[in-house]
Prior knowledge:
four-stranded mixed beta sheet; four-stranded antiparallel beta sheet; mainly beta; about 0% helix
Amino acid sequence: MSTLSVATVQTANISAYNTTSNTSLTTGNTTAGGLVTALYTGGVVIQSNSSTNAINISATGDTTINGNTAVTIPTGNVAQRPSGITGMLRLNTDISRFEGYNGSNWGSLGGATGGGVDDAFYENTNTITTNYTITTGKNAMTGGPVTINSGIVVTVPSGSYWTVV
């Protein structure tokens, strides 16, 4: 497995190096309309798009980020959510929670929260502002009262239950 680190990302240049031997892993580079694609050994593709400020990294196998510090993920409020793509992760600053996109809805990651190591409390919003479908074969519960905004749909599949306590 090759370890890659992005050394330079510009609209006209993407470089990556094997951090073990400090040799370039670039096997191809294409540019079209602000989109730069670099192909690397080991099935890794990195794309930089200057018109959207997006960097996409694709790998044919598992991706590992080594180190003992942290990875910074995007943050923003509910109004700043992007159009969801399955697997997106972000920190929602309105609710101070990490959230992910499951292909149809944004939802909080993780379970109950509390003070210190106590996981005795689960806080939920009291207003539902986006459509939500409970996962088939699962149940959901919400601490009420709860308001469902006009035009918003909560779907409960056959065999599943939504309990508002």
